[in-house]
Specification:
The complex is a heterodimer of chains A (about 350) and B (about 220).
Chain A: H1 2-26, H2 31-61, H3 68-83, H4 93-111, E1 116-118, E2 128-133, H5 142-150, E3 163-168, E4 191-196, H6 205-209, E5 215-217, E6 223-225, H7 235-239, E7 245-247, E8 262-264, E9 276-278, H8 283-286, H9 293-297, E10 303-307, H10 314-321, E11 324-325, E12 337-340
Parallel strand pairs in A: 1-8, 2-12
Antiparallel strand pairs in A: 2-10, 3-4, 5-6, 7-9, 11-12
Helix pairs in contact in A: 1-2, 2-3
Chain B: H1 3-28, H2 41-48, H3 60-63, E1 68-72, E2 77-81, H4 100-103, H5 128-131, E3 140-141, E4 147-148, H6 153-157, H7 162-170, H8 189-192, H9 210-215
Antiparallel strand pairs in B: 1-2, 3-4
Chain lengths: ~350, ~220
């Protein structure tokens, strides 16, 4: 083991040297391929060298005698790989699997508890949509509690993805006059309630403005964020016309016993300070056929969720049979979140 | 032309295309343009519905524990939870051995169901026997005196609440059991509403965001 580790940097260097001329010979004319191949080559070679070095140094420093050396070398290796991992969007399936495994492992090392992080992909033939019945919502806010618990939101800043706006009847839908933090018996007389969250637009402006492509729309229509690729510039927050995005001003705090251990890389896995987050239609649930936590928690049935490509789904029936509308339709953002009335 | 010249020309053309392509992409820069040239999401839904025959996601694993019955009116087909096997002391005829008026003893007061307070419509419109048959307690009765299974109470509710019945069958009223994935298992009327007092009571919201109050001061 010790010997192998000491030799590995050298071996890697040799491997790199051996690779380069071969690749160069293959990519003779094609400009694009050449550029991309070069990049990949360098990156993978660099990765191999650094990984080897770390393991080697780790082994050398402990003189190959202590049992802990292997553990710390493994930890160092994991940290390196985690630090130099790519954007989730461009990872191969193996890389995704390795990444979520790493997160599970490092959580286990930190807390002693096990975690399940999924990298489940979108299913072809599924496009998620949501409908909200403003005649039904009574403003109980059960949805918000369920969302916070499901999605591991920061308790100390009381971060919440969903807002329930209490709007006085007879004045139209005016969010400037709405109250989203009421505390009195509900439903209040002469008021109605309207929930907002990320609308998962078909043309999401937040995705367009992201300078590092840390946010994108998945094939099933869910707009997601790679929390490790996000640089926290908050352009997306400014670009969203619906106030759908949230920023972690401080390191999120959740009691260990309250952490939802059933996670998805693009969903409710634990975030850090300085990154964006938002509703993901509970991607860790919805991709497994479940309803988002808010839909399940709503006692009034004001929230309908389903597959827009299934002509027998409830969401499709609502779109085809009720009078539906969306917010700021003139912007062309095409939200997949409709409002309707009884 | 020599081979070298040819190569250079090719490189030039390639790089020109590359620059043009970059310009076009950076000007438009629309995510997933290759897949969707639709104007709006409704166009996309229309175009892509039916492209995939069936999806491999099912809600069966979430609803295994529920005993279900079928609702089918020709237009909609779905499942609802079965009710009778969950009722304590069903069948009712275990106690109701005779007609209601024969076993009642008004001078002694109510023996059972003393906790039921009917808060459903006006007493001039509804009383116990509007829905319960005085002669057959194991069944419900319609306004035309036909019998309905307790399992199919939605038919009874739908006599007056026809708008809600229509919305419920379609999917715009009520809730799902399990999840969104097929097969559809919907909660039935009495899973959410107490038939004797079907309205939802006012109550306090389940949370108050104290941080927001501080921030907005």
């Amino acid at each position: 083991m010790c010997k192998e580790n000491n030799h590995s940097p050298l071996q890697n260097r040799e491997a790199k040297d051996a690779d380069l001329p071969l690749e160069a010979a293959q990519t003779e004319v094609d400009g694009f391929d050449q550029v991309f191949d070069m990049q990949m080559n360098r990156r993978s070679a660099f990765k191999r060298i650094t990984a080897g070095l770390v393991a080697g140094i780790g082994a050398a420093a402990t003189s190959c005698s202590v049992a802990g050396s292997e553990k710390s070398a493994e930890k160092a290796q994991m940290e390196w790989e985690e630090y130099f991992k790519g954007n989730y969007k461009v990872m191969t399936e193996e890389e995704k699997k390795a990444t979520v495994k790493r997160i599970e492992k490092s959580y286990e090392q930190r807390s002693g508890n096990s975690l399940s992080v999924s990298s489940k992909e979108a299913t072809p033939g599924v496009l998620f949509g949501y409908a909200f019945n403003i005649s039904k919502c009574q403003g109980y806010m059960d949805c918000i509690n369920a969302c916070v618990e499901e999605n591991n939101q920061d308790r100390s800043t009381q971060m919440q993805y969903i807002r329930i706006h209490e709007i006085e009847k007879g004045h139209g839908i005016n969010f400037e006059k709405a109250d989203d933090n009421y505390y009195h018996e509900v439903p209040a007389k002469n008021h109605f309630y309207m929930g907002t969250q990320c609308f998962h637009c078909e043309n999401p402006p937040c995705v367009e403005v992201c300078p590092v492509q840390a946010t994108w729309k998945e094939e099933d229509g869910i707009v997601v964020i790679d929390y490790d690729w996000c640089i926290g510039c908050r352009y997306c927050m400014a670009a969203c016309p619906y106030d759908g995005r949230r920023f972690n001003w401080q390191t999120p705090e959740i009691k260990e016993s309250e952490v939802n251990k059933n996670q998805h890389y693009l969903g409710n896995r634990l975030r850090k300070k300085g990154v964006m987050e938002k509703c993901t239609f509970c991607i860790q649930r919805s991709r497994n056929g479940k309803n988002p936590a808010c839909v399940e928690a709503c006692p009034t049935g004001a929230r309908i969720f389903g597959n827009l490509l299934d002509p027998t789904s409830e969401i499709r029936w609502v779109l085809e049979n009720k009078k539906v509308f969306r917010l700021k339709e003139d912007l062309g953002t095409e939200p997949k979140f409709w409002y309707y009335m009884d | 032309m020599t081979k070298g010249n040819n190569k250079m020309l090719k490189t030039c053309i390639y790089s020109a295309f590359a620059i043009l392509f970059t310009l076009v992409v950076s000007c438009q820069h629309k995510e997933g343009d290759a897949h969707s040239h639709h104007h709006g999401v409704m166009d996309k839904i229309e175009a892509e519905t039916g492209k995939v025959d069936s999806i491999p996601i099912s809600s069966d694993y979430l609803n295994e524990h529920i005993k279900k019955i079928v609702v089918d009116d020709g237009e909609h087909h779905f499942l609802i939870p079965e009710r009778e096997s969950h009722m304590t002391s069903f069948p009712c005829s275990k106690c109701h051995t005779d007609d209601l008026d024969k076993i009642q003893e008004p001078e002694k007061g109510k023996k059972a169901h003393w906790d039921i307070k009917l808060q459903h419509a006006d007493i001039s419109i509804m009383n116990c026997t509007t829905c319960h048959s005085a002669h057959n307690m194991d069944k419900l009765r319609t306004i035309t005196n036909e019998t309905i299974d307790l399992n199919e109470s939605y038919k009874l509710c739908g006599q007056c609440h026809s708008g809600q019945l229509k919305d419920w069958k379609g999917g715009g009223h009520g809730k799902r059991e399990g999840g969104w994935a097929p097969p559809r298992v919907s909660k039935t009327c009495t899973n959410c509403h107490n038939p004797h007092s079907p309205g939802f009571e006012p109550r306090w919201p389940s949370r108050l965001n104290t941080q927001k109050i501080i921030e907005r001061k």
